[in-house]
Amino acid sequence: MREASSSGHPAPADPGLFGPSSVTWQLHGDPMMWVAGIRALYLQALHPRAVRGVMQNSDFRRDAWGRLMRTANFVGTTTYGTREVAEHAGARVRKIHTMLTATDPDTGERYGIDEPELLLWVHCAEIDSYLHVARRSGFRLTGALADRYVAEHRESARLVGLDPAGVPASTAELAVYFERVRPELAAGPEARDVDDFLRRPPTHPLLVPARALLWRRVANLAYASLPPYAHALYGRTAPPPATVTRRLVTTGTVLRTVPARIRWQLPPKHILRAMARLGPGARPAPYKLDRRPAILDGPGRARRGNGGDGGRWRTPG
Q: Where is this region: Disordered (predicted)?
């Protein structure tokens, strides 16, 4: 039951950090977020200092599934939970980060994993991946709405300890950031470990056929959607961009035919809890976003996107 306000009327329910009118609220309910999350891991692993912090402070090799689910739960909590719950989740992450360090095996340097540059890399690789995969798979956003999504996530950057003023607030600023950081990227031993896991995750013998049939296809698609410089660093080629786009669109189309109410039943049911708190009108849906090209958008910009490398692609149809 909602508490009554001083006027005697029920106090409005807490919409959380973003709220039902945000781009984040609609986009994060899309099933292609799972493919985007794997792309983010591939991209994040290319920053040697950042991925070293993960590998030296976690049981990633034996509990990678757990790490994936904890990350997904954090995103769901901060997107659809109340502000209090989101702030608590952020405070917990910040506290953990302050206690962890990593060591550069080449120089012996010991550094904190909460260095702003490392946190910024993880944030940007994640937001770029969510936006890139969603748009390229058919989730239509104008350039203005894509910019709004990036700007909204200065809030999630704040939660993990970054100064929002220093975080990209548009797709153009995000592209500039990737250009600046590219010389620091490399596919070191830790990145190879991440790649090996994502290509062949350990699983029960009875589930090996499913791994080959389903997981490998998803992981390959996530890898293929990376920018060309990432393929070059990993040393593995990918299909032509047009082929990758067709596969992303096909996968997105198929996954979006699964009724949302069924998809949202999967634990931890963040979206269903948000709808129970705010009412059925809070249901995430792409059609709630204004898909008309903004006045300032260039011709065709609403149908194009930037993959973090300055390259352009076009969604068919």
A: 287-317
